[in-house]
Amino acid sequence: MTTPSAPHPLLRYGWDGAFATAFAPYEAEGLRPGRVVRVDRGSCEVVTVTEAGPVAAVRVGTGPVTSPDPVPNPCTGDWVAVDLEQRVARAVLPRRTAFVRAVSSQRSDGQVLAANMDQVLIAVSLADELDLGRVERFLSLAWESGGQPVVVLTKADLVPDPTTLSYLVEDTERVAPGARVLPVSAATGQGMDALAALIGGEGGTTAALLGQSGAGKSTLANALTGADVQRVDATRDSDGKGRHTTTTRDLLPLPGGGVLIDTPGLRGVGLWEADGGLAQAFTDVEALARDCRFPDCAHVTEPGCAVLAAAEEGTLSLRRLENYHKLLRENERIAARSDARLNAELLRNWKQKKALGRHMMERKRGPREGG
Questions:
Q1: The predicted structure's pLDDT at residue 51
Q2: Pairing of strands 148-154, 88-92
Q3: Which of the chain's termini has less CB crowding within 10 Å, N or C?
């Protein structure tokens, strides 16, 4: 009778057969698998299997590493091949998912905020006026990451009227097709059991927690982990907003299994190569576009545009359509900066549209006198 093998020590951190297969060449070199739990300048902390114990956190250097990813630097959530003798990460295993944003509006570089997550928790504070445009922006990047988005409406206790809260949830659900929307309160426990059940599990699932500064992510992380793992400053009496406290991206074990990646608050989140994510975030617009008269309809002034018709009828929010156009333009600009040929093509298309616009205006005005 064969004795069943013991589960891998890193199973609760998300280790599985696919990562083991990707790691096999490095195992032959005597390296150890490890998952990045925190990144600092020039080094990172990883959980790995050591001689001293089944799982230990060790600090290793992050010099030049091999990686198939265009953004190769190790990030929280990455699986790496670790040389314990030299205390250095030699390689980053292929990422299953990655939440990437543009470094800035003036550059085409991408920054990985979290890697290998199954769910992306988008924290939106109900202490502020609900900004649906910002929700759509986060959702576009979340869908592009490959993870399953969940919109977490935090500080629900600050909306005591159940009818008002219901309206806020419904408004969010309308701009989040395919994503679950959960109102929660870490202060009262409202919705926390449902959220914990959604992201926990013995199989080692990973959830990444992202959102704007002051959205209550640190409080939420403490409630989910059952410990004061993140510092939380008192909220301001004037508006109930918290202060920005998290400064690093940390991978935190959850009591029910799995891990949570908590990230610092984001003052801005620029799109980065999010074509697919935009299509998923705006599936309603994409579905309407299939009925447009022209296959290359830009949904601006074209005749027979089903998208514009829906906006005029009120079945599609004009605000949502305008934000769709805004995010598309932003995504094109980022792509253009990283692709000279695309940049030239966009410039050519812009000149053609400008010339066509002049031509149409001249036709409206009619022939000039004396011409």
A1: 79
A2: unpaired
A3: N
Whether residue 342 sits in one domain with residue 297: yes
Whether residue 178 is contained in a domain is answered as yes
**Which pLDDT tens digit goes with each residue over 197-213?**
999 766 789 999 999 98
Please give the Cα distance from 12 to 49 (Å, whole number): 13
How far is 127 from 152, CA to CA, in rounded Å? Answer: 13
Based on the fold, state whether residues 28 and 138 are members of the same structural domain: no
Which range of residues forms the domain containing residue 236? 98-262
> Looking at the structure, do residues 88 and 196 belong to the same domain, yes or no?
no
Instruction: Return the residue matching tokens 């630097």.
Output: 73
Burial group, residue 327, by CB count within 10 angstroms (0-12, 13-18, 19+): buried
Q: How do strand 88-92 and strand 43-48 relate by DSSP bridges? A: unpaired
d(CA 250, CA 45): 10
Residue 220: phi and psi, rounded to 5, are: -65, -40
Residues 212 and 246 in one domain: yes
Number of domains in the chain: 3
pLDDT of 115-131, one tens digit each?
Answer: 999 999 999 999 999 99
Residues of the chain with pLDDT under 70: 1-5, 104-108, 201-202, 229-247, 338-371
Looking at the structure, tell me whether residues 149 and 298 fall in a common domain: no
Predicted confidence at residue 362, as pLDDT, reads 52
Helix (H) or strand (E) holding 211: strand 206-211
Strands 88-92 and 79-83: antiparallel
pLDDT in tens, 314-345: 999 999 999 999 999 998 887 777 665 555 56
Residues near 295 by beta carbon (within 8 Å), at least 6 away in sequence: none
| Residue 171 and residue 226 in one domain | yes
Q: Determine the residue type at 168.
A: L
Query: What pLDDT is attached to residue 364?
Result: 44
Residue 336: what pLDDT? 75
The residue from 65, 92, 119 where one domain ends is 92
Q: Specify the CATH number for the domain of residue 153.
A: 3.40.50.300
Residues 105 and 240 placed together within one structural domain of the fold: yes
CATH code of residue 36: 2.40.50
pTM, two decimals, is 0.84
Q: Dig out the tokens for 55 from the structure.
A: 């799982």
DSSP 3-state of 145 = helix
